[in-house]
Amino acid sequence: MNFEEANKVVHKVEDQWHYSIMMEKGFEAITKEQVGFIRRYKYVKNDHEVVCITGASSDRWEDNKGNYGFWSSLEKI
């Protein structure tokens, strides 16, 4: 598979690093799948929105309350 083909692969939210963490915390996955190397998945629980980003250089998250971090700190939200 070449670079262009690899960047067209569909990635399901259930297969991502953040999915089980967010499900355990009671969030709903709004973004069900994304395409490409850099992907953003949105989760919602009441008025709390969290976006988990999987990218070429890092995996991180940010929320609508001004919090953010890398994958290792997601369990603390």
Q: Top keywords for this entry?
A:
mainly beta, two-stranded antiparallel sheet, 7 strands
Protein architecture, described:
By secondary structure, the chain is mainly beta. It has one domain (3-76). Helix content is 13%, strand content 39%. It contains two helices and seven strands. It has helices at residues 3-6, 19-24; strands spanning 10-12, 28-29, 33-35, 39-45, 48-54, 59-63, 68-70. It has a five-stranded antiparallel beta sheet. A hairpin with a 2-residue loop joins strand 4 and strand 5.
Mean pLDDT: 94
Total domain count: 1
Tell me the Rg in angstroms: 13 Å
Query: Looking at the structure, what is the overall shape?
Result: globular
Low-pLDDT runs: none
What topology, given as strand order, has the largest sheet?
Answer: 2-4-5-6-7
Oligomer: single chain
Briefly note the structural class of the backbone: mainly beta
Number of strands: 7
Q: How do the helices and strands follow one another from N- to C-terminus?
A: HEHEEEEEE
Describe the structure concisely for a colleague.
This protein has 77 residues and is mainly beta.
Task: Please render the helix and strand layout as text.
Blueprint: H1 3-6, E1 10-12, H2 19-24, E2 28-29, E3 33-35, E4 39-45, E5 48-54, E6 59-63, E7 68-70
Antiparallel strand pairs: 1-3, 2-4, 4-5, 5-6, 6-7
